[in-house]
Amino acid sequence: MSAILAVLHEGYADDSGVASSVVLIRDDDAVVVVDPGMVRDPELILGPLRALGVEPGDVTDVVISHHHPDHTWHIALFPRARLHDVWAVYQGDQWDDQPAEGRQVSTHVSLIETPGHSPQDITTLVETADGLVACTHLWWHAAGPAEDPRATDLDSLHVGRQRVLDLAVTRIVPGHGPAFTPDESTPG
Asked: Where are the beta strands (DSSP E) in the chain?
């Protein structure tokens, strides 16, 4: 069996505003939300979640790709979940230091460290029936941008992109755009 992934909210970053791509992953008993960040209204996360039969209290884990508010704004919608970032796993009043690199969130969901956009960026890797999916801010959308204008370390960003592409991912859910299938035109 593999994980099931659904995009709850397709992110964007344009003249109309900025919103993160928000993802739901179901993997055995784990119910994972990735990047519950800025959206115009919390119902844009909660409505699709409930339509899939998941209540906020059912969410076991939240993963944030990095600490920018556009990816963290709505963490509090899931107060019982464990929170995963690059440094640790947090729950209630517990702070468990552990690097994200190689961390297993659940059987088919793991994390790798992919700095570049920020020093704290991580990518969530999800083994699905259709192949490996990467939820990541290495790309804002399918076209990149080729050079992330907000990157803190462009060299690391390009190394991280190549690392993810070398994993032969079948789909990428970028930080601010629709999911896409990488190909030869995908900025590395």
From this structure: 4-9, 12-14, 17-19, 22-27, 30-34, 61-63, 82-84, 88-91, 94-97, 104-106, 109-113, 122-128, 131-136, 171-174
